[in-house]
Design a protein that fits this description.
Membrane-bound Lytic Murein Transglycosylase D, Chain A, elongated, two-stranded antiparallel sheet, mainly alpha, 40% helix
Length: 165
Amino acid sequence: MGLFDFLKHDKKKQEEQTEQQAAAPGTGAAASPPHSDMGSKYTDASAGGKAAAERMAAPAPPKAPPAPKAAMPPAAGPGPSRAHPGPAQPSDLSAAHKAVPVPPKPAPGAQKRTYTVKAGDSLAAIARRELGNEARWRELYAMNRGVIGADPDLIHPGQVLTLPT
């Protein structure tokens, strides 16, 4: 069965339904004239468009005045006031501490290792070569943020970086 056969079949089926509706008394088919295949598709859409246009043209309902705010009594009793909480602190479960790790505390009397950046270096390459693990570049950046600046991808030859132990 080809494409046109399906179309003919659907058209024939629709014609049979309209004939049945017209033959059945009290179904309301007499109130609405039979439509062509194209007309029935778009009459509902045009009626909906007209209804939407009427709703948009109608004046907006008046707005209710805002309810007056009730004054909150001050919190009684000991404890911190919740009116002005302090600055948010990252917890162990938050992701804030994972982005850039806190540099490890140097042991007292331990000698610091340093590295002078050469042309073509990156923090990952320095971490791989000097620390044995490329993933430790974040630790290297955390220790040298003051020297490197806000962009860890931008390091310049001649910068002296402190290496973690």
